[in-house]
Design a protein that fits this description.
8-stranded mixed sheet; globular; 17 helices; Nuclear Transport Factor 2, Chain: A; Rossmann fold; alpha/beta; 14 strands; 4-stranded antiparallel sheet
Length: 443
């Protein structure tokens, strides 16, 4: 997986830019895109996709990829999926869709270009994801699968029904339950990053010790093709679905309804105080790698850090940083047009999130709060943790702890943190699991 994509995957929202004949059309689109024939490529979209992405935005995709991944080297493989799922099903009843997944190798990594073609020979969906080799999930040593069971569940608002997994301990009557809230982007229920599944580690680790866990596929994962980037803000992207998860649990008789806890990671941790302010049901929040600063500041800091790992940076990379700095300066001055993308995200998203002061809101939360931080985390750094510590350490309801050897995924590493370590199979550290267990039992 490419350095930049790995580095930003948990922190930045990723939005949809959203058989022989169909494959030819998909392949032609890729060729036009790579040849910078943007206008021709854009005309292949159907009206729904055109309503979500402008021709100008489409034109920024390949230059951005080349800055981060280097030059295109070769195609790797093509996967055809004729089945229809919720992420490609159209509201107008058009169900004859085929998804093509084109694997493409670049100088610095590989990407999957996913293209959905309808039976009218139009492109109904288009998105790009990191491409990694499939690696079998490695069960952490602290997990005892005999101590819990898993149920496939579904909940949520009528238009945005979510699929998830409820992990519940065996032989524990009415256990406490933790809701896992993702970082940014279209995350699955396991918050899969390369071969690693930190949310699965947390769910299985906590359930092995008597705590139930609800995790689910994020709305942007299941319904990305239905969501317009310009209309997305933190309330529908994250908060509304967490509140629906709380309602789902309140209706169950196999848990302790007085001990429902929200555990957020990265962006999920950033908005955990907001969730606490909107819910009258939850009894505590856990904030893992919680940004205390504005999102745009962390974006710029991450990019500078990642480029600092290189011996030299190209003129294009240097210009990219300069442009990013200028856009963020304009954002802070409220002069950047809302539709202008910052790392592919409309400025409107940053404007909306910028109205939220997570530290101020957290100060007003009376519920127990546990704040955890990896000291090797370069995405949300110790600068953020120190802000939380300075502002909240005198609050008796707040407990803070950092871990010297852990990264953004709360997995152990050595030396200076690098994006490549997310490619190595690893597990959430047992100490983190135990600290959460101990805290839950105390509150």
């Amino acid at each position: 997986m490419n350095k930049i994509v790995i580095g930003l995957l948990l922190l930045l929202p990723a939005f949809l830019f959203s058989q022989v004949k169909e494959k030819e059309l998909a392949g032609n689109f890729i060729q036009l895109l790579f040849a910078n024939r943007v206008s021709e490529a854009y005309q292949l979209f159907d009206s729904t996709v055109k309503s979500k992405i402008t021709e100008e935005q489409l034109g920024t995709i390949m230059p951005g990829i080349e800055k981060q991944f280097g030059k295109f080297i070769s195609g790797i493989d093509t996967v055809i999926n004729p089945s229809v799922n919720d992420s490609t099903r159209r509201a107008d009843g058009e169900n004859e869709l085929t998804t093509f997944d084109f694997g493409c190798k670049f100088e610095n990594g590989s990407l999957s270009f996913k293209i959905v073609v309808n039976n009218k020979q139009e492109i109904s969906g288009f998105w790009i994801t990191p491409k990694t080799d499939k690696v079998e999930y490695r069960i952490p040593e602290y997990v005892n699968i005999a101590k819990f069971k898993e149920l496939e569940v579904e909940f949520g608002l009528p238009e945005w029904r979510l699929k998830g997994t409820f992990t519940i301990p065996r032989r524990v009557e009415k256990p406490p339950v933790v809701i896992l809230v993702h970082g940014s982007g279209p995350n699955d229920r396991d918050e899969t990053i390369g071969p690693n599944k930190p949310f699965k580690d947390l769910a299985w680790g906590l359930a092995s010790k008597g705590i139930a866990v609800l995790r689910y596929d994020k709305r942007t994962k299941l319904y990305g093709s239905k969501m317009k980037p310009a209309d997305i803000n933190i309330q529908p992207e994250v908060i509304d679905d967490v509140l629906e998860a709380v309602n789902f649990l309140k209706a169950r008789d196999d848990i302790d309804k007085n001990k429902i806890i929200v555990l957020g990671h990265s962006l999920g941790a950033m908005v955990a105080p907001m969730i606490a302010s909107q819910s009258q049901t939850i009894c505590g929040i856990v904030m893992m790698a919680a940004p205390a600063r504005k999102l745009e500041d962390l974006v710029l800091e991450q990019m500078k850090y990642i480029y600092s790992l290189k011996e030299t940076i190209s003129d294009d990379e240097r210009n990219f940083l300069t442009d990013l700095q200028l856009n963020i300066d304009s954002l802070k001055n409220n002069t950047l047009p809302p539709s202008t993308p910052i790392i592919g995200i409309p400025a409107s998203y940053f404007y909306n999130l910028g109205k939220y002061d997570q530290v101020k809101v957290a100060k007003g939360v009376k519920l127990p709060i546990l704040i955890l931080q990896g000291e090797r985390d370069y995405q949300v750094t110790m600068e953020d943790f120190n802000i939380w510590r300075k502002k909240l350490s005198d609050h008796k309801n707040v407990k803070l702890k950092s871990y010297p050897k852990l990264n953004h995924l709360f997995m152990t590493g050595e030396g200076k943190a690098k994006p490549e370590e997310y490619n190595l199979p690893n597990s959430v550290e047992i100490e983190v699991i135990q600290d959460i267990v101990d805290w839950v039992r105390e509150i």
